[in-house]
Records
---
Amino acid sequence: MTQAIEHKGRVAIITGAGTGIGRATALALARDNVAIVAVGRRAEPLEQLRADLADKVPVAVVAADVTHDDAPKRAAQAAIDAFGRLDYLVNNAGMGKPHPVDETTDEILDLFLNVHLRAPFRFCREALAVMQDGGAIVNMASSFAMIGGMRGGAYSAAKGGIVALTKHMAAQYGPRGIRTNAIAPGVLETEMTAYAWNAHVFRRMNMDMTPLNRTGTGEDAAEAIRFLLSDEAQFITGQVLAIDGGWTTTKYLAPHVVAAGSDEG
């Protein structure tokens, strides 16, 4: 049982809170005096987050694999035990390195669906049981749920399910004042995607295809999540917000790439 902590602000569960977008979101919400229930597989980064926020907001740590059956209930109970309430849920936990369909074994399929669809569904279900009316949920979709992405496979299928789940929940729980939105990041530069960004060709290719001509970061996603949870977004629900520098809006190529192609033609 989590020890009760005195806190007068709102409370958010964040999955995958130890690194990347999850950690950045916790830091962003702390600026708004939002207490955090930090969920993640490894206790060490969660404890580091708690230490980093010690002089700002309290953090309750739940070290758990989000795919384990008891993880959602443990997180919801931790919010109630520690803070007596739950206002927000951020379904952020994820994993990378997707595979095309013909290279996807049943084991890989089950893993991606469990992490990216089943776990968020179950966290939503447990959060709804204790969430304050007027609360808000942000799910993690992907640009690969909006366009055809190479090697998407089970990852794209799961993220497409998240989009559908988000829209259903916006309609179903809107009468309670609970808003449900999703963000759809491109390939942001985080610890999870470092394997790709370390390749110069991948980095240059992505920047050449992005109108804003830079890499996206966990902080870019976190600020969007912070907005969607906030009262400033109180009439926004059922939406999927792309966080990709314009990558999914167009078949954009940087001017120097177009020029090079013209010269070669």
---
Amino acid sequence: MSVQGFAGDGYEGVTELLTRFVADGQETGAGLSIWSAGAEVVDLTAGWSDAARTEPWRPDTLVHTYSTSKPFAALATLTAVASGALELDRAVAAYWPEYGQAGKDETTLRDVLTHRAGQPVFPPAAATVDLVDEDALREILAAAPPETRPGTVLAEHALTYGHLLDGVLRAATGQPLGHWFNDVARPALGMDAWFGVPTSELPRVAELEHGLPGGAAQMLAEVCPTYDRALSRPHGAMDMDRINSTAFRQSTFAAINLHTSARALARFYSTVTDPDGPLRDLLGEKLHTEFVTTQVTAVDQTVQERVNWTLGMFRTDNFIGMGGLGGSAGYWSFTNGHGVAYVTRRLHDHGRIGQIAFGMGDNLIKAV
């Protein structure tokens, strides 16, 4: 198993790092892409995309990226806002009346986008619901009271984020979140990414695997203990048989199941803040500015750190972007002016992207 591709001048060190990850068993399949000044300056692949280790990882390999997905769930929603179908500071219940019960009548779309809707965890009723039963999960959220008063407490909505946004979009526009991303935002940006992978693209999707012998339980205990409760319902969010199933790949679980490539993710982040880039063209000046500007700074009760959230991403003075459970991540470095994405099939911590970033002089510490 070898590392393939290229790294341009000044980026040679990332090839050495990825080669070491493979050699010492940290990595079994991954892609790394870096874009600067409109061009891809690093395009590296390592390992295999399948558990049988017969299919090499390719530049267009798609992979499930967990919370790396969240900015794109937000983007789908903001695309509808840009169309005039939604307003950020209007109550969700104005569009989705069923949601206005149990103390949620004043929750705004901005509250949801900034993880302050008070529903960071699916209610107990979701414990027996199938992971891909999108309708039932939305209905459970609509009926449940918030854990905290909406708009007052910051807590990453680890699994609920996409279903809340999907509920608003369906009620307001008659179209699901998948439509607003796949059919509107994705083609406008020329992005190779999907919520609900089309059958024609399934052969490109990598199979995830746990990187720790204890699987999900060890992952939660050692890598992300603060997420234990947030990921507890519905069952299956860390079950590789479910996550690798066609049913899940073709569903829209938008908080966690964007399937994309390293190249597509890095290219997106390389222009995410551009005042004349494709994202500005899609959203318009005001909305694009809101998307990439800090909206709330507080101790996030899920992350257990003081962080800045934009309308869907982490932001510091050094970077803007988002990582996901298991090690995938994408970001724009304000320090060094490049868009970076590392996507992996081997679920572990963020040590791999952390080492890559550190080697380039990027600081990915999100606490502020």
---
Amino acid sequence: MIALDVQNVSVAYGGGRLALRQATLQVGGGSVCGLVGMNGSGKSTLFKTVMGFLPPLRGTVQVFEQPIIRAQKAGLIAYVPQSEDVDWNFPVSVREVVMMGRQGQMGWLRRPGAADHKLVEESLERVGMSAFAGRQIGELSGGQRKRAFLARALAQEGRLLLLDEPFGGVDVGTSEAIIALMGELRREGRSMLVSTHDLGTLETFCDEVALIADRTVLLYGPTDEVLTAENLAATFGGRSPLHAASTAKLEARP
């Protein structure tokens, strides 16, 4: 089954300016797809559209063959935002942040039960944040903050995880832990769309890659077929040091 199916989607902000143009991509069930492109290329717009924050002007988005609204109500989607999209001064503990991931599964009174508390603690332990559960979210380091929101996504139990720049502002140890966690989730049958600038590690965790430039998806497919020097040049125009380093690495492959 296809986890995420985006077909010819266009999105416009106020004033009619297109923020996404006829974008098409698919993420297979139980696979990890990397979304790669420069700042302003349309990555965040695509994420917001899949989350249902922005309605498509044209085209369709389905998650496990369900329209977005139905997929959201069914709890099929979990989201890890970019750090800059979070108000770190908001007075809330790490445990409370993770519990927010359970709200969609609670009853109409929105009171967590024993099963919710159990899953929150398990999610915290899985990302190595149990010892920080009582801390205010604003007191954490960049890597700890990212782990906290990963725990929230785990608590949501979504079958499709959207990770927006999960490696941004974290240390090497946290990056390795995130990659290891993604591998575990994939083996459990979860599907992931991962926006990243870290081209050097894509081959270590991605089954598929989608390249996005000028507000549209240029191409997507198996990682080893998409990540070529020619395709990266079309995506980055040779303007990114990351592109240059990655191109050298790709050209050195046997």
